[in-house]
Amino acid sequence: MTTQALQFKTRTVPPHGKITKENFKDFAHTHILVAEDNLINQKVIKGLLADTGIELTMAEDGQVAIELLKKKSNYSLILMDAHMPRVDGFEATRRIRQNSQYNHIPIIALSGDIAPDDVKKMKAAGMQEHLAKPLKISSLYDVLYAYSKQTVYNEHVPSLELNIQTGLRICGNDKQFYKEILNDFRKMYEGSTDQLGKYLQNKQLKEADALLLDIVGLTANLGADSFHAIAKNIKAAIKDTKEQSYLTLIEQYQVQLDHLLEEIKKYGQK
Question: Does the global pTM surpass 0.70?
Answer without folding.
Answer: no
